Amino acid sequence: MPSIEGAVIRKILDSRGNLTVEVEIRFGKVIGRAAAPSGASTGAHEPPAWPKGGVDKAIQIFRSSIAGRLKGRDVADQAGLDRLLREIDGTSDFEKIGANVATATSLASAKVAAASAGKPLYRYLAGSGRPGLPLPLGNVIGGGRHAVGGTTIQEFMVVSQGPTLQGNVFANARVHQRVRDALTKKLPDVPLGRGDEGAWIARLGDEEALGLLADVCQGVEKDLGFAVRPALDLAASEFFRDGKYHYRDTTLTQRAQVDFVEHLVRDYGLFSVEDPFDQEDFGAFSELTKRVGARCKIIGDDIFVTNVERLRRGIELHAGNAILIKPNQIGTLSDTRAAVDLAHRSGFATVMSHRSGETTDDTIAHLAVAFGCLGIKTGAVGGERIAKLNELIRIEEELQAGA
Ligand code: PGA
Ligand code: ZN
Asked: What are the tens digits of pLDDT across the range 190-230?
């Protein structure tokens, strides 16, 4: 039985310049390493990323209460390790150790297990299942919590649907570049910058930004000969107050918000729309799904927070037809997988996702392939984003060679 010989933790930087952690788990010469990302538009039902006392406290807890208990454990027993993390924490949602230490430890353990079995992570985790390549969702124009002075809607994305993953990644980057050209033409005297996820920041109205992106998508679609569609993450909980949605230039009632999102889905041919409503409003998710669920993925992020209990409620109410999957929203690989399995069993699609604060860790690329997710949301450009995209390109090549 390959057993864990040691585990270390260190402080590293994330892409926003904040401190985060990475964990290394060792078996002989084999090392599994994983880092934790963090969000800016975190859902109210997410566990805390850090214990009270922050990153330093998390490191202290790891060294005093976790590392020693990992030693000697079977690296292949992921479920047992994840149960142990919950037991050490002792609360229902990682309040004591923080979800980020749990996530990094859980993923590092899976990686050392895969490496000691001589397999890439995606293949190890796929088991007897067939690995599948996801559609990349690339963030092109960004606002909300990810960009100062930009749109109210958080993410205007592109989803290219050509015959290869590599071609889709390149097409998304091409859209990102052409949107830069379109923005400099439209706003010639305004400096152009990028937000936390590498998307352009533009002081445009929300529908104006979507119109500009949709036009660029159409042009690229024509050039390449396959579908290139826009998609949105509204992150609507961030601008929902006192029963209303507060856009920079307008305010909408809850009922008007459903009509507005329906209009965007229909008139701009959206591939998907994420968090179009407040995280407690299962009713509005159900209504939109009834109206446009057949033509568009209605994705829940803050509403489901990768949590099977909240997802189960959403499935019963037909509140959406897809779930965003963020491992550090739930804290362990086993719980992440449980959410994916429940979604797939229930006819919900899954989209694996980065966080706005990322590292160059590429584990989610492997998870998306292993679990057969429909999509992966991990930006269009930027070092910490292309770390995942380029890894997906390598995986595609490997799968093609093995096919
Ligand atoms: P976050 O945003 O990582 O800042 O939470 C990403 C998202 O809302 O999907
Ligand atoms: Zn989101």
From this structure: 999 999 999 999 999 999 999 999 999 999 999 999 999 99
Whether 311 contacts 304, CB under 8 Å? yes
Ligand 1 contacts CB of residue 233 (under 6 A): yes
Which amino acid is residue 362, in one-letter code? D
Tokens 């930004």 -> residue = 209
Sign of CA dihedral 370, 374, 380, 385: negative
Which of 103, 302, 355, 377 to mutate to test ligand 1, by most ligand atoms within 8 A of the CB atom?
355
40 lines ligand 1 (CB under 6 A): yes
119 classed as catalytic: no
pTM beyond cutoff 0.85? yes
Candidate from 16, 20, 41 with most ligand 1 atoms within 8 A of CB, to mutate? 41
Domains and CATH numbers, the chain: 6-118 (3.30.390.10), 135-401 (3.20.20.120)
**DSSP letter assigned to residue 14:** -
CA separation for the pair 297, 289 (Å, rounded): 8
Write out pLDDT tens, residues 131-171: 899 999 999 999 999 998 999 999 999 999 999 999 999 99
Confirm or reject: Cβ of 353 under 6 Å from ligand 1: yes
